[in-house]
From TrEMBL:
Pfam family, one: LonB_AAA-LID
Family the UniProt entry places it in: Belongs to the peptidase S16 family.
Lon proteolytic domain sequence ranges: 567-762
Annotated source species: Tindallia californiensis
Source lineage: Bacteria, Bacillati, Bacillota, Clostridia, Peptostreptococcales
Top-level taxon of origin: Bacteria
Protein name: endopeptidase La
Example GO biological process: protein catabolic process
Length: 803
């Protein structure tokens, strides 16, 4: 047994203060970058450099590894060397009003462009009113009117001459020219007209019709004159308006001459103002309207003048480099932008000024950070993001449009070109699912940066861990840590990694200990954080979360949960399981009993029969059949039933770490050799009897240790573990001291026969050249009993045939 014992020095990887040459972390330089993520960092840097389509980045890793903060930090460093992207504005589309135009321009120019256009429109409105009130305009218009009136008088004179021949005259009224009968060369009065006889009335009607035919061409001349006057006045108005706006338009064109799209828009703007010059004269005549906001709104003038607004969608006037946007709530609208609506008199209406930017707009030309879980949970967000990355453009539309629902009025804004690097942050499982099930994903996210949960515990990384502690002390305002405290944090980091030669890279868990150790140092009135403060923080963290563990240990102590830690029992053995309660994981011993009896060959897993066994545990039980068959059934079949039970277990069991434990119980039951109850066992076994490593070795050992401590130590208690798990031992000081003092023992084995010898004190036995095991060994007793049962069963079968 002694040769399998693990020396106390191997139970923890102690960190020596001689590894460091500083007294406190105050002497250290702050850490730059991230520790222990070389593969992820290289992948991330390569992805950031690649500017080809599809080279977006998926960050894979568990939370707490620094994946989010480092991704944003390195993206920011790249962004700072990149140019500031364009501003984007939406303007009215004069040709297609329902399709607003997008205009891109140099960073900072969008705000100036908006100011230039809108101030120009305001100035034009004021100057047009002034221009149309000017003497020059009035005289030109009067001249046109006089010309019309003179020609109109001449035609009217001719009309009256013709009318006189028929006994009529023409009179101008607000409704146009009307014919009036004459009597004695004067207009007939209404009374005279009403007293006319029927015959006279018919005669007047006939003459009136003849007059109409005679004067038809002259009336057309009057209409032509009116139309000419309208055209001339309109031309005068347009000329007057053009003279006003031409100065401002030329000024704008000179300023924005370098962008074709902007030039085209300004020219279209000029044409539209000229064509709608009358809209700018509203304030000329209606002074009452100025004080009546409701009347103005009702008239529609405000709606019309919205077309001359500029919607500044993306403003980089205060941005110094490429943008980095971390979108924590990636809804459809937060990503793609939205078209908002106003309720006017019960109807929903919108216009291009109601278009709002999304994260894709704000991050365009830079980097967008998203979390996989959040975007996949949002309806339509994931598909819309992929579409934008595939087409390299941002289409703003409302969900109602995408879903085919009808709205009162809608817009289809011109798409904006998209040049962006998306950094998607998630875990490895989600990455595997997306890669397997989403055809677009592998084309759009060609770079995977995988953040590890652990790193090598070499001198370089230990020094970086010390620098990491120093950085946090400086950034957050913690007390400096002395060497002893740094060493204990490093040991704790290895415990979190469950490996003597590794450190955890889930730094969030380490940081929590730093904060709490600082608090305990404060309460201790200490200027620096020492090892006892780190120990206190770890102990208190466990205490805050181990109520369930304490309750279970009390149940073991008072006998509610049956557990023997002394004596020997046949077919009974102490297994070990790991349980979790929130932040705290702990080991719990569990009594496993095995019974063997004549019956149908095979192993009955009671947990599986009642649906309390997971698939991996069930597989482990089947492996036992393979081992027994190979070891003991080469000459005859095993005519034996085996029943295995985890006693007082009321929850699901999974994993194969108890398979070796179950095998020891089977061998004990068949051979009728008792097992020491003072030794608990963990370890997986294969069909060749080789012991395989398991997880949670520290928690399992400490779980049995705590139960033994409550029930009192006898000096022969301990745990058997796989030899491969020795590198995972990071046991608490109390266990190490107990092993050092001989109160507790750890055994490391590589084969099931080594374990059965420790548990029973009986040699397993080695097969000789004739295939026989030495008498008195476990293997001999097992084979002999199985052979005896087979012979007895065969004899009974033969006797029944003879009968």
């Amino acid at each position: 047994m002694e040769k399998y014992k693990v020396d106390w020095r191997q139970l923890n990887s102690f960190c020596s203060m001689e590894n460091f040459d500083f007294e406190t972390t105050q002497e250290l330089r702050p850490l730059k970058g991230i520790i222990g993520q070389d593969r992820a960092v290289k992948s991330l840097e390569f992805g950031l450099k690649m500017n080809k389509k599809g080279y977006n980045i998926y960050i894979s890793g568990l939370s707490g590894t620094g994946r989010s903060s480092y991704s944003e930090s390195i993206a920011r460093s790249y962004a700072e060397s990149m140019p500031t992207p364009q501003d984007w504005v939406y303007v009215y589309n004069f040709k297609h009003p329902d399709k607003p135009k997008s205009l891109g321009m140099e960073a900072g120019l969008g705000r100036q462009f908006k100011k230039d256009i809108e101030s120009m429109i305001e100035q034009i409105r004021n100057e047009i009113i002034t221009a149309f009130r000017s003497t020059d305009y009035e005289s030109k218009k009067t001249e046109l009117v006089k010309e019309y009136q003179n020609k109109n008088k001449e035609i009217l004179k001719k009309l009256n001459e013709i009318a006189a021949e028929y006994g009529f005259m023409f009179k101008e009224t607000e409704h146009g020219l009307v014919t009036i009968p004459l009597v004695e060369d004067r207009p007939m009065s209404q009374e005279e007209y009403e007293n006319l006889s029927a015959e006279k009335m018919d005669e007047l009607r006939e003459k009136s019709n003849e007059l109409s035919l005679k004067t038809f061409e002259h009336f057309n001349e009057i209409k032509d004159l009116e139309e000419q006057l309208r055209r001339k006045v309109k031309k005068l108005d347009e000329k007057t308006g053009y003279d006003v706006i031409n100065y401002y338009i030329k000024k704008l064109l000179n300023r924005y001459n370098h962008r074709k799209e902007i030039r085209e828009y300004i020219n279209e703007l000029e044409r539209d103002i000229v064509e709608n010059i009358h809209r700018f004269r509203k304030g000329e005549d209606s002074s009452q309207e100025k004080g009546n906001a409701f009347f103005i709104k009702k008239s529609g003038d405000d709606h019309f003048h919205l077309r001359y607004k500029v919607n500044l969608l993306v403003d980089h006037s205060e941005t110094k480099h490429a943008p980095i946007i971390n979108e924590n709530n990636p809804t459809f609208y937060n990503l793609m932008g939205a078209i908002e609506y106003k309720n006017e008199m019960g109807a929903l209406k919108t216009d291009f000024t109601q278009i709002k930017a999304g994260s894709l707009h704000m991050a365009n030309g830079g980097f967008l950070l998203l979390h996989t879980r959040e975007i996949l949970l949002q309806p339509y967000a994931w598909d819309t993001l992929k579409r934008a990355l595939k087409t390299n453009e941002i289409n703003i539309e409302n969900l109602s449009q995408q879903m085919g629902l009808i709205v009162t009025s809608s817009l289809k804004p011109e798409p904006i070109p998209l040049d962006i690097k998306v950094i998607l942050i998630g875990d490895a499982y989600t990455y595997s699912l997306l890669y397997a099930l989403d055809e677009d994903f592998k084309k759009l996210f060609k770079i995977m940066a995988d953040f590890d949960t652990e790193m090598s515990r070499d001198q370089e990384n230990m020094e970086k861990m010390a620098a990491f502690i120093a950085t946090h002390c400086e950034e957050v305002g913690l007390k400096d840590f002395d060497r002893s405290a740094v060493c204990r944090v490093i040991q704790y980091s290895s415990r979190l990694a469950d490996h003597q030669e590794k450190l955890t890279s889930r730094f969030s868990q380490v940081v929590e200990v730093l904060y709490e150790a600082d608090q305990w140092a404060t309460e201790d009135y200490s200027d620096t954080v020492a090892v006892e403060h780190v120990d206190k923080s770890i102990e208190e963290r466990i205490y805050r979360n181990n109520k369930y563990e304490e309750k279970l240990n009390e149940l073991f102590q008072d006998g509610t949960l049956l557990m023997d830690v002394t004596g020997n029992k046949t077919g009974q053995i102490n297994g070990l399981v790991v349980m979790g309660s929130g932040q705290h994981s702990f080991g719990k011993p569990s009594r496993i009993t095995v019974t063997t009896y004549r019956g149908k060959p095979g192993i009955i897993n009671i947990e599986r029969e009642v649906a309390k066994s997971g698939p991996i545990h069930s597989k482990g039980v089947y492996v036992l059949s393979g081992y027994l068959g190979k070891k003991y059934a080469q000459e005859h079949p095993i005519s034996l039933s085996v029943s295995i039970s985890f006693e007082q277990n009321y929850s699901m069991i999974d994993g194969d770490s108890a398979s070796s434990t179950e095998l020891y119980g089977i061998l004990s039951s068949i051979s009728n050799v008792p097992i020491k109850q003072s030794i608990a066992v963990t370890g997986s076994v294969n069909q060749n009897g080789e012991i395989q490593p398991i997880g949670g070795v520290n928690e399992k050992i400490e779980g049995f240790f705590d139960v033994c401590k409550r029930m009192s130590f006898t000096g022969d208690q301990g745990v058997i573990i796989p030899k491969q798990n020795m590198k995972n031992l990071m046991l608490k000081d109390e266990v190490v001291e107990a092993v050092k003092d001989g109160e507790f023992h750890i055994y490391a084995i590589s084969h099931v026969e080594e374990g059965i010898e420790i548990l029973t004190g009986v040699p397993a036995g080695t097969e000789d050249e004739n295939g026989n095991y030495p008498e008195g060994t476990i293997n001999a007793m097992v084979r002999n009993r199985l052979k005896r049962i087979h012979k007895e069963d065969s004899k009974k079968a033969n006797d029944s045939k003879d009968a």
